[in-house]
What we know:
Layout: E1 16-18, E2 27-29, E3 36-37, E4 42-51, E5 54-60, E6 69-70, E7 73-75, H1 82-94, E8 96-109, E9 114-126, E10 134-140, H2 153-168, E11 172-177, E12 181-185
Parallel strand pairs: 4-9, 8-11
Antiparallel strand pairs: 1-2, 2-3, 4-5, 4-7, 5-6, 5-10, 8-9, 11-12
Amino acid sequence: MPNAPRYCPHCTTALDRGVPTGDTHARQHCPACGYIHYVNPKIIAGCIIERDGRYLLCQRAIPPRPGTWTLPAGFMEAGETTEQAALREVWEETGVRADIVSPYSIFSVPKISEVYIVFRAIATEETGQFGPETLDYRFFAPEDIPWDEIYYPAIRQILERYILERQAGVYGIYMGNDDSGKVHFMR
């Protein structure tokens, strides 16, 4: 297990690997004090922001795959709500301030232990400045989106579905994973 601790952070006893008493999963745990080392998924929060029929994408400046495009999104920080994380990431990556309209997608990728939470949002301010993780940002018409340069397959799938729903004027809330999913429509 990469980056797993070898010793208990509370009593410095060597950690064992196995199913702790009362638990259901094998984990590292301390036989002396009972500490359990949990490894939980990472949460990525972001927004689909539309303005005049165009969608905000940012071009990655950092690995993996700099130069590819994605929705503004990133890892949630401790002490943030998912909404705060999504709006912070939009601001850091594009210099755009936004207001959240509604949740849109909860998408799990268990193979890499990540959960994407994507909101619908509207732009309220565009500064033209963006952070060091971004090479560029743009609002794209659907026909101009660089589909083959969208880095994350989950993000491409979410954006494609959103554009179809936008054209139909009916939005769902999507819950799924990289193998299957279901759209729950809101009235």
